[in-house]
Every structure is written in structure tokens, then in C-alpha cells.
Amino acid sequence: MFEVKDIKKSYKSDFWSRSFEALSNVSFSIEKGQIVGFLGANGAGKTTLIKIMMEFSKADSGSIYFFDKKNFQEISKKVGYLPERPYFYPHLTGQEMIELMGALCDLSHSEILNSIEKYGHRLKIHFALNRKIKGYSKGMLQRLGMLCTLIHNPSLIILDEPLSGLDPQGRKDIKDLLVELSNEGKTIFFSSHIVSDVEEVCEKVIVLEKGVIVYEGNISELIERNSNTNLLISVSSKAECLDKLSESFFSKNSITTYCVLDSKKNEFLKMALDKKIEILKLSKNSPTLEEVVYKTGQNV
């Protein structure tokens, strides 16, 4: 679907200062139908790369291929883009803004109305489309931006912090929509610094730290690769006597939950049985994506 290859970008704050490298040999590829999360702390270089992808900025070196084509202008009508801070003409209504965006995409009036019908209710903005945009809340602006992004039925959707400014219900609505769009065969690339949002909807993640890709791959593989094999063992309320057991092979997470190394699982269970302690639950201690990222020093 698209490939980023060896992108470099440097900036100077003024003529006399030394340049700093915002992006260093950034390379990755995304296949059709994938939802890919682009993780990185504020200032990691996410927006810089997206601007280069959209040809709002020029890379010092490297190439980007969309649909096997290097010229973005040839395929721009297949791409939907939502910037981190979308701007709309405040004197227009939401409907007028959408119609303007549709006209810029060479859509007919009926095609625009069909898209509004399809996504307006789904994004829960249909009731506000006759209002002036200047009266929209931050969350409503994000919903309007999402509708404008989808107006021309793009094959590739690029979103920069699409969940910013949304309340919990709004975040859920957008995440559910992203999954639906992926199921329709659309490819989605969205940046975020909120790891949990990416973990909920993405199958693949790309982690950028200080302009360098530190991980690219499936979320499940990243978690598995960085998981320990510890087990969580929950015991009955009579477990005070566990305090008398050797603490050399477990750590106490709470009053009745213990984290035990897999290699010492059998030893722990034998000691618990000898002391007649009831085992309520035995489960693997799997970390979240956020825990893995912070643990491995990927400051997302």
C-alpha cells in the first residue's frame, strides 16, 4: 500500500545554530487493510514525517511510495488526511464546509450527500451540520474533520492525533469507525502518543523515538517479546501464612495475589499445598503495550 524508505530531515533554529536531525533513516511499510498505530512522544517527529508524506514539507533524502507510485499528486485523490489541528472557515456551516471539501475532490452533489448520509450519523454530527462552525466544540470539530477526511471515500487514511479533544464516548465512536473502515479494506495510519488507544484498535505498531524507528511489527509480538513468564497466583483470604514462605521466588502484588517466576511455579504450588492454602486463580502476567514501551525505554 505504501512504503517509507530512508527518510531524513534536519532543521536549524537559525543561521548560526547547528542543525538537529528530526528524522533519521526512517523506513517502514504498510499493507492494504491494516490499521497501523504510529506511536511517539510529543516532539518525536511524528507530525514531521506525516507532513513529508503529504508533501507539505520536503525530506532531505529518502523516498515515499504510495500504491507503488512515487508521485503523490498521481494518487492524492485516494488519500484522506486529518491534521492534528484541522482548520475550518468559522463563518461556514458544517454542511457548507463538507460540500466545499467534496467539491475540491471533484465529487458531484449527490456523491457528497451520500457521504454525509453514510458518515454523518455514524460520527454523531448530523444534527449540527446546519450550525456555524464557530459554535462547534473541540470534539465537534474533530468529528467534522473526520467526516471531511472520509468525504471522497479514500483508500488510504492518514490521521494525526485523531482522538484529540474527544470525550470518552467520542473516542469510542472514532475507534469503532476505524475498525469498520479497516474491515472494508481501507488502510489506516494514525499517529498518537496515547498507547492504550493504539493497542485497542491496531494490529501493527510503529514506534518513533527522537526521530528513529525503534520498533515496527505486530503488537502481540512486541508484548510477547518483552513479556516475562511470571504467573499471577491468587489465593484465599487465609493466605497470611504465605508470609512465612520463602520470598526468594515470588513478590507480593497485593494481599492475596503473588507474582511467581514460571521456573519456580511448581515449587511455589507444592509449598502452598503443604500449608493447605487454597489457590483461587492461576494466570500469566502479561503486560500492556504501554508497560512494554516504557519498560524498554521507548518513551511513548
Task: Tell me what the structure shows.
The chain has 300 residues and is of the alpha/beta class. Helix content is 32%, strand content 26%. The chain has helices at residues 46-53, 72-75, 94-104, 109-120, 138-150, 168-183, 195-201, 219-226, 265-274, 289-295; strands spanning 2-11, 20-30, 35-39, 61-66, 79-82, 156-160, 187-192, 204-209, 212-218, 231-235, 250-252, 257-260, 279-284. The strands form three sheets. Strands 5-6-7-3-8-9 form a six-stranded mixed beta sheet, with helices on both faces. The chain has a four-stranded antiparallel beta sheet with strand order 11-12-10-13, with helices on one face. Strands 2-1-4 form a three-stranded antiparallel beta sheet, covered by helices on one side. The chain is globular and about 75 Å long.
Q: What general outline do the C-alpha atoms trace?
A: globular
CATH topology description of the largest domain: Rossmann fold
Tally the helices. Answer: 10
Quickly give the structural class.
alpha/beta
Order of helices and strands: EEEHEHEHHHEHEHEEHEEEHEH
The stretches of 5 or more residues where confidence is low (pLDDT under 50) are none
> Which architecture of the largest domain does the CATH hierarchy give at level 2?
3-Layer(aba) Sandwich
- In spatial order, strands of the major sheet run 5-6-7-3-8-9
What's the end-to-end separation, in Å? 26 Å
| Range of helix content | 25-40%
Q: Tell me the total number of β-strands.
A: 13
CATH homologous superfamily caption of the largest domain: P-loop containing nucleotide triphosphate hydrolases
| Content of β-strand | 25-35%
Summed up, the domain count is 2
The first-level CATH class name of the largest domain: Alpha Beta
Overall average residue pLDDT: 84
